[in-house]
# Entry
Amino acid sequence: MEHYLMNLTLKVWRQANSNAKGKFETFKVKDISSEMSFLEMIDVLNEQMIREGHDPIAFDHDCREGICGMCSMYIDGRPHGPWHANTVCQLHMRAYKDGDTIVIEPWRANAFPVIKDLMVDRSAFDRIIQAGGYVSVNTGSPVDANATPIQKDNADAAFAAAACIGCGACVAACKNSSAMLFVSAKVSHLALLPQGNPERKSRVTNMIAQMDKEGFGSCTNTGACEAVCPKEIKMSNIARLNNEYLVAGLTIDK
Amino acid sequence: MLNSKIPAGALDQKWVDYKGHCKLVNPANKRKLEVIVVGTGLAGASAAASLGELGYKVKAFCFQDSPRRAHSIAAQGGINAAKNYQNDGDSVFRLFYDTIKGGDYRAREANVHRLAEVSVNIIDQCVAQGVPFAREYGGLLNNRSFGGTQVKRTFYAAGQTGQQLLIGAYQALERQVALGNVHQYTRHEMLDVVMVDGKARGIIARDLVTGKLERHFGHAVLLCTGGYGNVFYLSTNAMGSNVTAIWKAHKKGAYFGNPCFTQIHPTCIPVTGDHQSKLTLMSESLRNDGRIWVPKQKDDPRKANDIPEEERDYYLERRYPAFGNLVPRDVASRAAKERCDAGYGVGTTKQAVYLDFKFNLINKYGKAEANKHGIENPDTETLIRLGKEVVKEEYGNLFDMYEKITGENPYEVPMRIYPAVHYTMGGLWVDYELMTNIPGLYALGEANFSDHGANRLGASALMQGLADGYFVIPYTIGNYLADDIATKPIPTTHEAFEQTEKAVAERINKLMSIKGDTTVETYHKRLGKIMWEKCGMARNAQGLKEAIAEIQQLKKEFWSNVRIPGTIEEMNPELDKAGRVADFIELGELMCQDALNRNESCGGHFREESQTEEGEAKRDDDNFAYVSAWEYKGESAWELHKEALTFEVAKLTQRSYK
# Structure
């Protein structure tokens, strides 16, 4: 790849804590290499700010290889920035050219309060999993792993749903701040496998109830979530979720 | 003296006997016992969930915003288990033997055999939790092979095995949180161990959102905080991965085992420039289907695809015909360094070699698919098209990741790869029960030193993390806590908590009061450079002595001139990082001490003074068949304790993969 340098203008959301009023601040960064990742560009800006005696921009990040789900920036009106099926940490600066202006915001949703600058609190997702996103087996001596053959198509579909990294981009992209794609990924993962079958009705009912309690909005099938999902979780999972929910509602015994 | 508490009896009966005779805690008493688990990766999450299920009162801590983000999630290739589903001659004994040999005979036989025994339970447990491992069309589980072995025993989920296993453990953990058996503390960092009457009785943790210090009591404390590869600044570890928890324990008296044993992984995406913040692994499983080569001609200016077959040097196949591209990681890394140092490296920096998929894409997968579809005499284009589909299913996410980072399409051109720091075999010294030399303080997973000797085989880290958490600690902790059932929870107003918290607060205040002019990141980069150059893939006495002096100097500068912005009682990532880097600096010095002491080459530790005429590592069993366990004795001072390694079953031989 041809390597080049660029100067950029960044408009970044700054907010001291969850109670403070936030605002945009404008920064200039110089000689950014096209080979840098987006977060490395922010690193350069932060180092510069510390040297100049300013408070650096707080943002969540950890693995920087697109799998932990920690990074969460809303870049130019799109979660995780311009690339398809991508996380911010895997966005590289060759996506930009000299002179560009980039606007960076945190995830915006009532259920994800801002902690500081670009960091938000996503513990609502943990609580949704706590409501039923598991198979109730204790550590011990289950049957041999090959005792239950699973049709490859189902296993593959379950894996595709289980690839969700819980980043929250689906919520950030949705005009209703709905968490349906996240919830449907977990419900699908387990509903597609025989191991998840015994609890499928209570699981979907309880997870939806928790989702509503956390203040996430409703799904109106606009598909913004699927378009920005870094792991390409499909909206067909939402259809499966609705089906599971309906069946559970009609047939659950308690 | 070090007592590893290895049970008597035949190797394959030790764990059986132990389980049959260890003390038990009755269910009513378990509810009165509190256990602190620090870290929520595979080891921590599986331990916290399993202990919660047993009825203990568990508190689980992680610095991330959710337990699901721990760095186990990034493990790609797979998890080993001696299931022998492939009928290719695998067994518990073979997995044990491969692991001992792969670790270059620097691990304990009893621990490794136990690991191989419980490996089969792990797969059963994970499948029961709903972990979607790769399957065959018949519906049964699929396996792949990995470096250092000649059987297919690795279970996987595309290139996201760690993610799927961690989600399994995370779900089990969240279930216990919902049931009230585990209380979870996210965005919390452990900053010290609290000792009462010589036993670990709690921790001081900092809430990273408010910046406030907290005291937590536990009858026992489990450190499951992963490895310390970030001492090299650049590594495949997550940005937050750190040594702080185990380093604090070390300074409270826990011995540090084999600190210099670092795994440099052969297949990572090469460094592009000074801005680089981390390195990304390309799973070792790619070596199943990729062939590693460099041009036969030095500084060959041609593009990879323009270099004809006969002008390529498949140096691993040439040097190690028996294992070829599947030699263990340490061997593959050194061979890549050797070629690049000799001037045959590729890419702009010349610090890279090619990992090429074309041959197997066409000849292995393409032809198999063509046969399956009944296509006779397919042309190369058809073979490539068909082969690509299979390769995409096996490694799709890795290929995508490579393209995002480099801008090159690895289906078309070979990947460029170079070794990078990946895993640390060293860690807190633990006995057979995973307890450190401090009573009540345990270390699990990568945070301990125990099972991988001087070199870890691929797909064994996930196995060890889950073995420790699901199947070892639930037994061994009972053996300790059974004697503790009468101990009432110690109030956190106890003097020991007061004093420990005071010392932690003083250190934070000291860091903030320096107000120098150099950023934390600058010191971390300087430390990393020293470590990589002098305590990296090749080490010698002179370089190590220089490194120790340079690190001591760096420490002085850090503590007199570091600049940390912001305040203490707020979300302040720079302050968090400063504390971690300060600990890394001290650890770096100990690693160099350990490397200097071990005047032999073994596994990932290559001392230039100790090599064969052909440049292969030369072990010295007469003088170094021991575990180095270092006791902290004050600033820049350590005392070495040696745990002799005895091999009753495995035969000590020079490793050969030729």
Notes: The domain at 493-626 of chain B is CATH 1.20.58.100 (Methane Monooxygenase Hydroxylase; Chain G, domain 1). Chain B has three domains: 11-22+35-261+425-484, 265-421, 493-626.
